[in-house]
Design a protein that fits this description.
Blueprint: E1 17-20, H1 24-31, H2 37-54, E2 69-72, E3 79-82, H3 85-104, H4 112-125, H5 136-160, H6 165-187, H7 189-195, H8 198-227, H9 231-251, H10 257-285, H11 314-317, H12 328-366, H13 384-394, H14 399-441, H15 457-498, H16 501-507, H17 515-551, H18 555-559, H19 566-574, H20 578-681, H21 693-704
Antiparallel strand pairs: 1-2, 2-3
Helix pairs in contact: 2-3, 3-4, 4-5, 5-6, 6-8, 8-9, 9-10, 12-17, 12-20, 14-15, 14-20, 15-20, 17-20
Main location: cytoplasm
Pfam family, one: ALIX_LYPXL_bnd
Keywords: Coiled coil, Cytoplasm, Endosome
């Protein structure tokens, strides 16, 4: 993008220290540090010295020199006290991570990897039972948030440095992956209960970011396709980016103005790219636009990591002020054993994460949610939105009656207008016929067939106005017809919504499953429950392993063990983990069989799934149609009234025009009579013996033309 809009980042509050029987000056400098990198340095030094202290003086839980240590728990504000020096270390380490997160959220956008490192070390080396804010779930959430934000910072720099589009897309995709992990943690019911009110805000921001950075990833995939002159792929990537950005915008409601500005800026960029790409492809390149799922997915590229914490690094912690209190060999041996435990945990976690990744991808591809896999319960109830419409109509019992009456009145006025215009048209046509006959009787050449003789000025005006009204009527007739169609479309639904709820419920589609279908469904749900059981057991075993490792302290044994026997002691001590490792291996091995069974069950479920999907689609369509009919009522009444007003006005004009037409036709007829009388007077007087053939012929012609011979002028008395 031409510039890089910034999204806000989540940062964590620092814990507050309570009672601790320690030197006042040390306590003051360690727990009230400045909110800057100097504060981070102070915390690291204090943490390192505590590490040296606890390895020499028995200040751990239930040890001789243990003293009460109090800290405030972040989410509840309660004071939590433990008689364990490790609790002090854990709280300092938490504050180190929180302070780094605070600094990382500032304009410089640095320090997130340090925060992730602090929380990772806290998760892997300390018990999780000290307080809620340092539980395993919360620490995992914090780690993924910090890694995601660190990757986000790297993404900003990559775009500012104009790195290659494909690399930027992969970096952005990895941001999405980290935030998805964080979102899974936020959606966990236990985590949500621990976080309290802040969970909703974090979840909303993280979900918005997932769609936003997915849009950025597809924007840059589209730019790469553009560079490769793959114009069809370019269109679908930009379209996908636009769709995902629209989802982000929906989720951004309530976010600060800076977020809205970033979204508007990104919408301008992506919208412009999409419109330009589509127009170029439609009019210039004409490449087929592939479906998005046929293209290779964007695999994230993680370019950040949790920076390790080393409590014994003298460059960070300074010199060991307790070096003379405990033999250094025991301390070193303890560190080596801790590394052996960490190695064991890393090996086990690598296997667990590999299996979890396969399981997550498999379940994502299946799109099977155990909670909604059959959704049969929804068909037993009328949805709330329909209940609302039914309730609204129950207090307006004359809804359908009023609509029908309104449309009947409209039809009556419409018919009156049509009758008036037809009568005017008939009068004009009759006048035209009589005029043509007169012309023929007078021996004039009539106009060609289809070309009426010129009407009198009065009738010409009537004809012009009639044509105008006819045109207006025809246009309005189409609207009137459409209005009646709309009424006929909605009237039945309105009657249904006004009737008993049992009829409404009966009108909604519902699935009909055979016993075999039900068996297939139950089998699928059973296997899905097995999948969840396998997940839960795996998480429980992992938690047990971590707790065992945290509690495993052999410092006392190391002090009395000869250096040459250390390796043997380590091997003996690590055997305590063999049993739980076996359980984990069995759990991981079972996954293949469970997924195979799920695959088979899903194949059998395909037909049932399709049928349920079709019924659900019909259900939703029916509900939407009924709701649309309710919402159309006011519009129909309004348009019906407008139609009545229009036709009432037109009917008045047509009635006046009809009177005018009658008068004009009468005047034209009288004029024709005068012309005939003048014409007959020009004829020679008839002989007494018999009428002249010419006059006889003229008389016959007049009679044939519809004129009575009695209307001819009488010859004078005695003329011969």
């Amino acid at each position: 993008m031409e510039a890089v809009p910034r999204m806000p980042m989540i940062w964590l509050d620092l814990k507050e220290a309570g009672e601790f029987a320690f030197n006042a000056a040390v306590k003051k400098s360690a727990v009230n540090v400045p909110r800057d990198f100097e504060g981070c340095s102070t915390l690291r030094k204090y943490f390192g010295q505590l590490h040296y202290l606890q390895s020499r003086i028995p200040m751990g839980a239930e040890q001789e020199a243990a003293v009460p240590i109090a800290w405030t728990e972040i989410f509840s504000g309660k004071t939590v006290t433990h008689e364990d020096i490790k609790y002090e270390q854990a709280c300092i380490l938490y504050n180190l991570g929180a302070l780094h997160s605070m600094l990382g959220a500032m304009d410089k956008r640095v320090s997130e990897e340090c925060a992730a490192g602090a929380f990772t070390y806290l998760r892997d080396h300390f018990p999780h039972s000290y307080s809620v804010d340092m539980s395993h779930q919360i620490l995992n959430l914090n780690i993924n948030l910090m890694l995601g934000q660190a990757q986000e910072c790297l993404l900003e720099k990559s775009m500012l440095d104009n790195r290659k589009s494909f690399l930027v897309a992969r970096i952005s995709a990895q941001v999405v992956d980290y935030y998805k992990e964080a979102c899974r943690a936020l959606e966990n019911s236990e985590t949500a209960s621990l976080l309290g009110k802040i969970q909703k805000d974090w979840k909303k921001l993280v979900q918005m970011k997932i769609y936003y950075f997915a849009a950025v990833a597809h924007l840059h995939m589209g730019k790469q396709a553009e560079e490769q002159q793959k114009f069809g792929e370019r269109v679908i990537y930009f379209q996908s980016a636009l769709d995902k950005l629209n989802e982000a915008i929906k989720l951004a409601k309530g976010q600060p103005e800076t977020v809205q500005e970033a979204l508007r800026f990104t919408m301008d960029v992506i919208g412009g790219k999409y419109n330009s790409a589509k127009k170029d492809n439609d009019f210039i390149y004409h490449e087929a636009v592939p479906a998005l799922d046929t293209l290779q997915s964007v695999k994230g590229a993680s370019l950040v990591k949790a920076l390790p914490v080393n409590p014994t690094d003298p460059a960070v912690t300074g010199p060991d002020i307790f070096a003379k209190l405990v033999p250094m060999a025991a301390h070193e041996a303890s560190s080596l054993y801790s590394e052996e435990k960490a190695k064991l945990l890393r090996d086990v976690m690598a296997k667990i994460e590999a299996k979890n990744e396969v399981l997550d991808q498999f379940m994502d591809s299946m799109q099977l949610d155990p909670e909604t896999v059959d959704n049969l319960d929804m068909y037993n109830h009328i949805p709330p939105i329909l209940m609302e419409k039914c309730a609204a109509l129950s207090v307006r019992p004359d809804t359908v009656k009023n609509l029908v009456q309104s449309m009947q009145v409209l039809s009556g006025v419409f018919t009156d207008v049509e009758a008036s215009l037809k009568e005017i048209r008939d009068l004009l046509e009759e006048d035209e016929v009589q005029e043509r006959k007169l012309q023929e009787l007078l021996g004039k050449v009539p106009p060609p067939q289809g070309s009426p003789p010129p009407p009198s000025p009065g009738l010409a005006e009537v004809s012009k106005e009639c044509s105008k009204y006819m045109e207006v009527h025809e246009k309005a007739s189409f609207t009137n017809t459409e209005l009646h169609k709309a009424m006929n479309l909605h009237i039945g639904n309105l009657r249904l919504l006004s009737g008993p709820l049992e009829q409404v419920r009966a009108a909604l589609p519902s699935p009909t499953l055979s016993e075999d279908d039900k068996q297939v469904l139950q089998n699928l749900k059973r296997i899905l429950a097995k999948v969840q059981e396998m997940r839960d057991q795996r998480m429980s075993l992992e938690q047990q392993l971590r707790e065992m490792i945290q509690k495993d302290d052999i410092t006392t044994s190391l002090v009395t063990t000869d250096r040459s026997e250390m390796k043997k002691l380590f091997e003996e001590q690590l055997k305590k983990y063999d049993q739980i490792k076996v359980y984990l291996e069995q759990n991981l091995a079972a996954q293949e069989n469970v997924l195979k069974a799920l695959t088979d069950a899903n194949v059998k479920y395909a037909a049932v799934r399709k049928a349920l999907a079709e019924v659900e689609h019909k259900w939703n369509t029916t509900v939407q149609t009924l709701v649309a009919s309710y919402e159309a009522y006011e519009d129909l009444m309004k348009k019906s009234q407008e139609g009545k007003d229009f036709y009432t006005d037109l009917e008045g004009k047509a009635a006046k025009l009809l009177e005018k037409a009658r008068a004009a036709c009468q005047a034209a007829e009288a004029n024709r009579q005068q012309i005939l009388e003048k014409e007959l007077k020009k004829q020679p007087p008839p002989r007494p013996t018999a009428p002249k053939p010419a006059l006889q012929k003229k008389q016959l012609e007049l009679e044939a033309g519809g004129l009575d011979a009695g209307d001819l002028p009488k010859p004078a008395a005695g003329s011969g």
